[in-house]
Amino acid sequence: MQSYDVVIVGGGIVGLTVALTLATGELNVAVIDAQEGGQALGDKPELRVSTFTLATQTVMQNLGVWPLLAHNRLCAYEKMAVWDQDSFAHIGFSHEEVGQAYLGHVVENQNLVRALWMKAEQSEHITLLAPNKVSNMVFGQQESFLTLDDETMLTARLVVGADGANSMVRQKANLPLTFWDYEHHSIVATIKTEIPHDNTARQVFTPKGPLAFLPLWDEHLCSIVWSQQEPEAAALLALNEDEFEKSLMAAFDMRLGRCELVSERKSFPLKMRYARQWVTDRVALVGDAAHTIHPLAGQGANLGIMDAVALAEQVIKIAEQGKDIGLTKSLRAYERWRKTETVKMIATMESFKRLFDGANPVQKLARDIGLSTMNHLPKAKQKIVQHAAGLGGELPLLAQHKLTRQAS
């Protein structure tokens, strides 16, 4: 029987961030995942990418993870451009509006997982149990008991569910969930563009859903995220490459010239999930286990990373006070804090989605006027871009400034 302060189920970006932050407080942590995260990047771009804010970058710098990334595979985006298809509505944002060198980075998910995994391997306080799965989990009064599929048995004062949208931890702990189906699927692929992307993240709102072009490290490569209703998404996936490229260029108003598909296409259903309870005795949820949101603003990964750091900082504080880190009453402050931030984001995304959903002439005119007016209001734009860059809201300490204490 192996005993730990905290066992984290899920060794992705969010779970590993929890582990590394806890290690700064010298808590002993185990991370369980079905696969090892240290695999090297392939020559071709990974399909799953995320946009990471300046706050997320600060977290990774403070944890000593940022130097371990493959920096030749990062793209620092300096501008954002948003427009409504077939209308005069548009708005643009620049790094200069917030006095920063850039607004954030587009990072392949595996690039960050690999760097986090490498840093975790260096820590004397973290045990990586992978490839492995949890076969049974029981929550006791003083500790939790976990059995892995290789019959390894663990105990922990706290179990953290970082195991994604279909979280086993959430289900085992009977934490209630609110959800609704956006009735959209998100198509992702890598595209080679005729015109260089100029380190700009672009998004067009079409009557059938938003289409984003996220710049990659090569000036002619972009990762697309194309949200469509399920029938349209299926039809697009069924097209041959030439027909798909034509549909893509038409939807994107030819902003980057000819587009060439250079990867496979994959589709993912979009659902909003929100756990009505994030903590209970011996259990806490983070990231997609607690919430999933629409990807139109690219904030899902950043929300999860802020959850991870906020929870870990709260657990360290509880431990330093000599209190039980696994009690609900000790973890309530984390739950209230991160629930508030998540509800704000869910409400914002739902408002944007409804505003840009469909081609009703009155609604279209309203959003055209609104976007164009906002584009000429510097102070209002500055607030929006500060939030998009992760410079607003209530941030964990690790996201605010450089710390002297690093994960060992």
Automatic annotation (TrEMBL):
Coiled coil: none annotated. Signal peptide: none annotated. Residues 4-338 form the FAD-binding domain. The keyword Oxidoreductase applies. InterPro entries: FAD-bd, FAD/NAD-bd_sf, Ubi_Hdrlase_CS, UbiH/COQ6, UbiH/COQ6_monooxygenase. The keyword Flavoprotein applies. Its cofactor is FAD. Pfam families: FAD_binding_3 (PF01494). Keywords: FAD, Flavoprotein, Monooxygenase, Oxidoreductase. Pathway: Cofactor biosynthesis; ubiquinone biosynthesis. PANTHER family: UBIQUINONE BIOSYNTHESIS MONOOXYGENASE COQ6, MITOCHONDRIAL. Belongs to the UbiH/COQ6 family. This is Protein visC. It comes from Paraglaciecola agarilytica NO2. The lineage of its organism: Bacteria, Pseudomonadati, Pseudomonadota, Gammaproteobacteria, Alteromonadales.
